[in-house]
Amino acid sequence: MVSLETDIGGLRLSHPTLMGSGCYGSGDEFAPFVDQTAIGAIVLKSVTRLPRLGNPTPRLVRTPAGMLNAIGLQNPGIDWYVERELPKYAGRACPLVGSVAGFSVDDYAYVCERLAADDAIAAVELNISCPNVASEGETFACDPALAAKVVKTARTTTDKPLIVKLSPNVTDIAAVAVEVESAGADALAVINTVRGMGIDVETWRPRLGNVTGGLSGPAIRPIAVLAVYEVARAVTIPIVGQGGIETVTDALEFFLAGAAAVAIGTANFTDPRTPERIANGLRDYLQQRGIASIREIVGKANVGLADAHEYEGDEG
Amino acid sequence: MPAIEYDSRVHVTRVADRRELAPGVILLGLEAPELVRATRPGQFVMAIPPAGESAATALGIYEAEGTRASLLFFITGKRTHELAELRVGEPLGLIGPLGNGFDLSSVPQRAAIVAGGVGIASVLLAAQALVRSGASVELLYGARTSELLVDAERFGEAGCELVLATDDGSRGRHGFVTELLGERPAPDLILACGPTPMLRAVGAIAAELGVPAQLSLEETFACGVGGCWGCVVPLARSSAQAPSFPPASRGGSDVVFARVCKEGPVFRSDELQW
Ligand SMILES: Cc1cc2nc3c(=O)[nH]c(=O)nc-3n(C[C@H](O)[C@H](O)[C@H](O)COP(=O)(O)OP(=O)(O)OC[C@H]3O[C@@H](n4cnc5c(N)ncnc54)[C@H](O)[C@@H]3O)c2cc1C
Ligand SMILES: Cc1cc2nc3c(=O)[nH]c(=O)nc-3n(C[C@H](O)[C@H](O)[C@H](O)COP(=O)(O)O)c2cc1C
Ligand code: FES
């Protein structure tokens, strides 16, 4: 029997398959329709200090090989969330990861503390990379020093595993990762959505109510694989790889690039049985190759950089 | 690969019947006993396209009787094209029934059902239920051309009075179906499903007539089950259907965004703030 168990900075998982924030609700929404035993953890939708109505509609646009979204962090705010939502989530089969979004260092710390104090929450993810709020949202993930400050302050509020979600919308994601690691993060989520826009040629208006949005799905997978690869070479903390994972082959790419676990977002909208499929596929893959544990393949992509460099001169 | 070893509750149905009612309009009959048992009028399913490459798509449950349910759809893009390629005997995964459906708890004497285009797919079960409960039911059905007025006869057989309209005048009234609504004797309940401009017009006419209207909305869905908050519509906070949500910091706090897939797709017209 092969092992799919893994550990994300102290968060122990029976399966290395998480459900990405904002794509799976609290899990209850899907519970009547799918067997959830192959889910390692559910990352809950991001919550902010104050209630947010969210962005005007349309909030979703389908694109080739993916979708654009601009939900705008619609959520009831942390007080209501802790009082009325979290009690409903107690006693779940899989661990729940709370997700925090904010507009100031202080916001992050406050919401992180409130979330982490709740027994229903096994770990906290800091979403410092939401591209869909008019101001600030993403700035935190785009400025290594600011990112470090958010993490350092949030770190003081809890001993529970702290995952930090990075943005691909930067020049050097590894540089941000390094700062976030030294500020005390236990793990990284790589990547959030890629900024994008669509325009309706009939009306000449943007196709999203928020004008711009975040691109997800298979369209961003190569961007995400590269980000995981670069970050994995720069840090030692575990990475939750995500961005366009639909099949076991996609997931394997992320493990080989350096992810210790994967998260599934958009693929869940194609088929909510995706985590089961991927978990079963991983088991088969390891069994066929006589590999005992998923942990053994993490970061094992054979990049052969030395050979590649030899031919550099011939490129042009 | 081993056989699928998990017990998933996605309904795996089989195509029992496939008909092209008009060019680009498909009626898929499905062997789906569990779905039929659970379905209420106005609910929908998320159909999982068989190649597994594109997002699940929302389709109204057209018929539900015995062990058979059916889906009626227009081929408008990739996913409906893929579903249209299904042949008899092939499997189709469905999640559902989803959404709240029409509220038929108080029986009207005279009901008008307004359907525009593909909206027809979501109203047959309601028509049948209303007729069964003793209401007299009028179907006001509009489409672009006579060819696209699909399956109107089915509603006749179900006991509805048919009032038709086409944009090009090729059958029935020449013009919009909503014009008919204003001209007919006022019903005491209006149900409607169709394009958004039609639904807005129905809402306005219903308000003028002082008749309650229930509108089945269409939005772009991702999850279809309430998990992503992508499909929202502004709703009066006082609505019984409003999701539980504190007054938000940003303006208009008497309005809250409700999920079309979860709190809807059917909303009371007078509670929509669109
Ligand atoms: C609750 C609910 C119930 C629904 N029930 C049904 C149903 O029973 N039958 C059904 O056919 N559809 C139904 N729809 C709509 C259906 O989900 C979409 O039309 C379908 O997903 C299109 O998918 P696609 O990939 O084929 O097309 P896409 O690639 O998503 O694109 C469709 C394109 O066609 C345009 N388009 C969409 N609909 C029409 C139309 N009617 N006429 C002209 N252009 C159009 C769109 O603007 C878009 O550009 C329902 C939607 C909802 C939210
Ligand atoms: C509709 C939607 C809503 C999302 N909401 C959030 C969110 O609230 N917080 C967050 O950290 N990420 C959010 N994301 C990003 C996803 O969690 C995920 O990181 C991203 O979509 C890439 O993975 P995917 O291609 O598998 O979807 C959202 C994505 C989508 C598509
Ligand atoms: S489509 Fe996800 S909440 Fe409605």
Largest interface: A-B, 45 and 45 residues
Ligand identities = flavin-adenine dinucleotide, flavin mononucleotide, FE2/S2 (inorganic) cluster
- Most strands sheet of chain B: 7 strands, antiparallel
**How many individual β-strands of chain A?**
14
Helices and strands of chain A, in order, run as: EEEEEEHEHEHHEHEEEHEHEHHH
Q: How big a fraction of the residues of chain B is strand?
A: 25-35%
Oligomer: heterodimer
Let me know the largest β-sheet of chain A. 8 strands, parallel, barrel
Based on secondary structure, the structural category of chain B is: alpha/beta
- What is the approximate shape of chain B? globular
Low-confidence runs of chain A (pLDDT<50, min 5 residues)? none
The DSSP helix count of chain A reads 10
Instruction: Report how far apart the termini of chain A are.
Output: 49 Å
Question: How many distinct helices of chain B?
Answer: 6
Computed structural class of chain A: alpha/beta
Largest sheet of chain A, order of strands side by side? Answer: 3-4-7-8-9-10-13-14
Structural Rg of chain B: 19 Å
Report the portion of residues of chain A in β strands.
15-25%
Tell me the strand order in the biggest sheet of chain B.
4-3-7-1-2-6-5
- The helix-strand sequence of chain B is EEHEEEEHEEHEHEEHEHEEEE
Count all strands of chain B and give the number.
16
